[in-house]
Amino acid sequence: MTGKQKRYLRSLAATMPPVVQIGKNGLEDSVIDSARAALMARELIKVKLHNNSPEDKTIFEELADMLGAELVQVIGFNGVLYKAKKEPKIILPK
């Protein structure tokens, strides 16, 4: 993914609320399943890591690898993931 494409996705995610939240139980199956469902529906999601979570910020990379998604950005305790569909809704610049 090029820098221009990542900038475009970051601009789209700037105003999005987090749709998946990782809490005190860490990265459990229900979190992975909800992230997978959200990616299938939206292509671009924001994930929030709560302060009481035992995980650190590297959890976003692990989640992206599990889902086959691209980690676009990590700011603070928020991460943005992108996974294109076969017929994408989000058209990336070249």
TrEMBL record:
Domain CRM: 1-94
Keyword S-adenosyl-L-methionine: no
InterPro entries: RNA-binding_CRM (IPR001890), RNA-binding_domain (IPR051925), RNA-binding_YhbY (IPR017924), YhbY-like_sf (IPR035920)
Matches recorded under SMART domains: CRS1_YhbY (SM01103)
Domain of life: Bacteria
NCBIfam families attached to this UniProt entry: RNA_bind_YhbY
PANTHER family given in the database record: RNA-BINDING PROTEIN YHBY
Protein name, entry field: Ribosome assembly RNA-binding protein YhbY
